[in-house]
Amino acid sequence: MSKRGQSILSIVAAIVLSSTLLFSGFVKALDPLGMCIKLNAYLAYFGIALPDSSLWLQLSTAALTLLEFTLGLNLLLGIRRRLSTMITLGFIVATTTLTLWTYIANPVTDCGCFGEALKLTHGQTLAKNIILLIPSAWLACHPLTLPRLMPERSQWMANIYAALFLVGLIAYTFHRLPLVEMTDYRIGSSLREALFNPQSEESHTDMANFILCSPEGEMLQDSILMADGYTFLVTLPDEDEADDGCNDLLNDLYDLHPAISFYGIIAEENKEQAADWVDRTGAAYPILSGESTQIKAMVRSNPGLMLLHDGRIVAKWSHNNLPTLPEEGIPNLAEYEQRDTSLASLIKLLLWLCLPLAAIVLLPHISRKPNIPNLKNNNKTMRKKIVAGNWKMNKNLQEGVALATELNEVLSTDKPNCGVVICTPFIHLASVADVINKDIIGLGAENCADKASGAYTGEVSAEMVKSTGADYVILGHSERRAYYGETAEILKEKVNLALANNLEVIFCIGEVLEEREAGKQNEVVRTQLEGSLFELTAEQFSHVVLAYEPVWAIGTGKTATAEQAEEMHAFIRQTIADKFGAEAADNTTILYGGSCKPSNAKELFAKPDVDGGLIGGASLKAADFKGIIDAWK
Ligand code: PGA
């Protein structure tokens, strides 16, 4: 498949995965207690249930939320692509295994993947995870085909901002109530309608099964919900863990409003704990029992407070944020009524999340241009200037030695103003080494093996190259990539071996015509750099010279314009700066290659980021090569 095709597939895979992971992480952060309850249901299956709001469950919820969201974000922005895609694959494999078990053993009724926002059956969840295995496996196998939307130096900012945002949201929500209500018990919903008019729009499954039972076993929900006026309900999902710090306020509210109905609701299975609550808090209001999931969904707080008006939910409070009472007199309950602000809150939260993230992603791109002149103005003179010849498969041994001898004479008489290197076929190396003055002309090979030594018939190792007296090796030339199938991985091996044998690497990168026509040249070149050089240390990288050779300009007579060359060289230097730092980028020699001749060399080399040339055809004649070398004079 073409690189373009691979890249498109990776983008689609990343969008599918990241949207699922971001959504899943975000909805968990919106209702973290809901997630604790779901996690606890799994633990209950094994008989090790904890209190819903135990620290362990809170931390697990936060960790799961952060993991999902961070993975989604990193895939979307192309951050730490190898690591992110591997962890994503591991995560999807683990969740698929879990959902397969859920499907078979049915330990819980709702898997909880998307909280209350989207409920899937076990079968649907399993199918979703199996489908997600495909893009995650693809990305884990082709991580570097994923485009990187921001430079490495600002990636940490995106992750830190998202993590702080989520942790803040989770902590706030645990303390108060969800800003975005996702259960059926939202402000404005009518329990009365749901119960008595099950066909109505307001009828939701959870609310239609709403029950309130007196200690004697009498069902009271009908009479309570039919009663006009206000009704307070104190929800007590877990009496043992309930915070009784708010009891004075609850009792005061009850006392101040003897005329309105006021009930506590405790989970049916904990009915006997009602007496404990009365003992602990002095509650005088009647305590009814209800279904546990219903109580937990009504108010995400233990205890929580709900106000109904004519059977409709008009306000909800967490025990940390109960309504205040007036200094004197009876509160006007109409003033306690709240509006459902879920949608507005959702929009605000999304803006608070997305706008800073967008700024973090975009700012380096906007500020990139001014960076470049700084790099070049200061250091063009500091970097090593090189004109290197690439003889390719030309000249027999005698012809090669003659050319090297001639060049040596010419340059000994008229000393060059730049470094000069000739890269020859292997068979020339030792003989050419004998006829050149290495103070004036460096010697290099055009290739080396991707193996250190052994049974690799026909190959020549980096160590062998070095032993001829050569100090350079060209790697990654487009002809080797195209005709000999040299991939980024193979080239990475070659680079490592060359550096390990103290060879300086002239590493070639460049796009083909279709890629330039599609405007993909930057992406192609960045991928080539990343694929073979980005695991080097800064020290190792200091032994690499880059050669930008647009493939459409090699041997075709069609040179890139000096402006095209400069534009790309500046981009390459910025990419190096992003990875290895500004100093390393300043010091990196970047050559231009592709139909470079005496007639155009001067104009090309005058560009601030062009530090010389890699010369093919024109290096086969001493006069032409000298003409290019003289462009530095
Ligand atoms: P060219 O080749 O100068 O003949 O275009 C350059 C190269 O392939 O290195």
Task: Produce the secondary structure layout.
Blueprint (H helix, E strand, L loop, with lengths): L2 H28 L1 H14 L9 H23 L3 H25 L16 H20 L13 H21 L15 H6 L8 H4 L12 H6 L3 E7 L10 H10 L4 E7 L6 H8 L5 E4 L1 H7 L5 E6 L2 E7 L23 H25 L1 H12 L6 E5 L6 H17 L5 E6 L1 H10 L5 E5 L16 H6 L4 E4 L2 H6 L4 H13 L3 E6 L3 H5 L3 H13 L4 H4 L2 E5 L13 H19 L1 H6 L2 E4 L4 H8 L6 E4 L6 H8 L4
Helix pairs in contact: 1-3, 1-5, 1-6, 2-3, 3-6, 4-5, 6-13, 14-23, 15-16, 15-26, 19-21, 21-23, 25-26
Question: What this model shows, in words?
Answer:
- This protein is an alpha/beta fold.
- The protein has helices at residues 3-30, 32-45, 55-77, 81-105, 122-141, 155-175, 191-196, 205-208, 221-226, 247-256, 274-281, 292-298, 342-366, 368-379, 397-413, 426-435, 462-467, 478-483, 488-500, 513-517, 521-533, 538-541, 562-580, 582-587, 598-605, 622-629; strands spanning 230-236, 261-267, 287-290, 304-309, 312-318, 386-390, 419-424, 441-445, 472-475, 504-509, 544-548, 590-593, 612-615.
- An eight-stranded parallel β-barrel has the order 6-7-8-9-10-11-12-13, surrounded by seven helices. It has a five-stranded mixed sheet with strand order 3-2-1-4-5.
- β4 and β5 (312-318) form a beta hairpin.
- α2 packs across α3 (55-77) and α25 runs parallel beside α26.
- The longest helix is centred in the first third of the chain and has 28 residues, at 3-30.
- The chain starts with a helix and ends with a helix.
- Residues 368-378 have low confidence and may be disordered.
- Bound molecules: 2-phosphoglycolic acid (PGA).
- 2-phosphoglycolic acid (PGA) binds at residues 390, 549, 554-555, 593-596, 614-618.
